Amino acid sequence: MAVTESPSLSTCTIHIERRGGRGDAGARALERHLRRLSGVHDVDVSFRTGDARITYDGSLISEETIRDAVRDRHVSIQDESETATDEVSTRSELRQEVVFVGLTLLGMAVGLVTGWLEGPQLLMWAGYGVAYVFGGWYGLKGAVETLRHRAVDIDLLMIVAALGALSIGAPFEGAMLLFLFSLSNTLQHYAIGRSRRAIKSLVEMRPDEAQVLRDGEEVTVPIDEVAVGDVFVVRPGDRIPLDGVVTSGEGTVDQASLTGESVPVPKEPGDEVFGGTINESGSLEIEVTRQAHESAISRLIHMVERAQSEKAPTQRLIDRLEQPYVLGVFGLTIAAIAIPLALGSEFTSTFYRAMTLMVAASPCAVIISTPAAVLSAIASGGRQGVLFKGGEHVEAAANIDAVAFDKTGTLTRGETQLTDVFVRDGLADESLTPDELLSLVASVQARSEHHLARATVSEAEARALDVPDARRFQSEAGKGVRADVDDGTIHIGNRSYVETVLEDAAIEGLEPGLDRLRTLEAEGKTSVLVAREHAGNATVLGWLAFTDTVRPGAAEMIEDLRSLGVEHIVMLTGDNERVAQQIADEVGIDEVQAELLPEEKVATIEDLVERYENVAMVGDGVNDAPALATATLGIAMGGAGTDVALETADVVLMGDDIGKIPYVLGLGRRTRRTLTVNLTIAFGAIALMVGTILLRGIPLPLAVVGHEGSTVLVSLNGLRLLGFRE
After folding, report:
1. 487 an active-site residue?
2. How far is 459 from 596, CA to CA, in rounded Å?
3. 83 in a domain, yes or no?
4. What is the mean pLDDT of each successive set of 10 residues along the chain, which is 726 residues long?
5. Widest CA span of the chain, in angstroms?
6. What GO molecular function annotation could you give as one example from this UniProt entry (predicted)?
7. pTM of the predicted structure, to 2 decimals
8. Which of 230, 406, 624, 657 is catalytic?
9. Domain membership flag for residue 498
10. Does 589 fall in a domain?
11. Number of domains into which the chain is organized
């Protein structure tokens, strides 16, 4: 059971399996039972996906109490370790369903042919008996289980209709109904199972063993016994068994199975690699950074499975309407019998028409239309390195009207380079050299994770500078940093830092320093001022300038978003406006919001939501977490190596490919069109058949074919999303 804490509530996901029966009525009954518990705020149960997701107040109710309440409803709880066993059981049940469908067809054929040829009555009824028993087996179990929870569902509708046909001397029609109903159920389970297996098959991509170096020799070790820090060897053509960092060797790695990148990625010492990917060339020695169960591919599989248990809004709406709709069908059927009989109609024909009406009005196709499409979309995204963390986010992607991008690391490479180190003219300490200034700055920046800090430290290391120790490091988000070095405090920051942190200090050389910053920014460079404070006096020592490069394909990606119908594209950055505007002009951004603090990014997203309603925010999942959470759809990049990205956003791009963003919105829009088509087919078939039955009447077999045919059709149409490409 996975538990996620929030400030006031907790959410637990319990892996479940109902003992006996099928259908959603038991799930609804379990939901109602859990909602009655004090402290439970929200419940979402699905026996199809095998998960119950409960949001509760931990101060009022415990996890164990919730688990006991689940068991009270005759529902078994599965441990994570039972997943593989459950998969085998599911496949075995599917094979059994296929056998039952075959026996139903055989029994129906025997009964029909024997009746045509006026053969032995015993043989005919034996054939129909086989068809009714095996065709109605699962439906009857589901109906009984549903009635135990004082509810009704589609299974009960089908069983009643089949028995009704039998009671008026139409055994073939009843047998045909059960055959097509069981066949459509089997095809639905196969379709949904296929979309889930598309992700689970990733497990098979990871080798079971690794060639670990022990005392200079290669030893074959099961991957579960490989520890963090061990070094293993991968040769050309081998699959990489675990996540790690290359320590020796160079080569190219095919990461398509995880990140969706179509081109092999060059790897050299210091680069990260992921389990399940393929080493195409070069022998690599790799140090393990994560154990098998923590690897990127394992996390991807787990999160996709969890996503498939979270229903889309359309599906949740349909689930809520199922119970009253089924009761309405029963009411309509009873009225179709009672009213004509009261007006003097003949019983057999009236009852036959009522059974036909019951079959035609049953909402099987409506109920399966959404999960068939949404689960396929989630699986399709997973195979492309795009992780949707729930069905609701697939639907949200379809409605996006505006997209906001973080600049650094998203639209740009994030590989900022230090280009200029300037010492101020007229400085009292004339002996200060650019290298000495860089050394002072690097001593402070060594304590920071900011991209400018990394560029500064990298340049100091490249120049082999002697960097002194810094003390009492402090950071001002979006502004700058400071620390004590030698006998003074070194301040490094932008104009906002000077105007706030140093506003009360008299700073020597401030005006020429700010003028130089403006000049550098006009050249499209990000720049910071360096000042030293000692005994209450501050002096500008100099300034540093940095550049970043736009990601290849960023401009094409923006064009693709426009072709999808995105109305407005914004860039959000803490950088200065001139640098930001230069990059925006290069890639075709509509609006630039620069020099933003993290809280100001959130306010900007809120404003965009007011203007455009549905807004996507694209960031790196670390610094942009509040903005990602505020947007309608948060998209984090580079999730394969980032724990924060996996926890922050609604959609995670496992690779670092900005070109996948149009894929995300395109898949959402294709899913919406598929849902529209499916619901049109489902409701259209019901309306057509019910209208025809009420006006003219149609044979029961034709209603059965129309009902089950539409169910199979929407299942297969949803399955087409598995093949969606950009």
Report:
1. no
2. 27
3. no
4. 49 64 58 78 67 78 82 61 49 80 91 89 92 88 78 76 79 82 71 55 66 87 87 88 89 71 76 84 88 70 56 67 80 88 87 83 78 81 80 87 86 80 78 87 85 86 88 83 88 85 79 85 82 84 85 89 92 80 87 81 89 88 73 80 64 82 93 92 90 84 80 84 79
5. 117
6. ATPase-coupled monoatomic cation transmembrane transporter activity
7. 0.62
8. 406
9. yes
10. no
11. 4
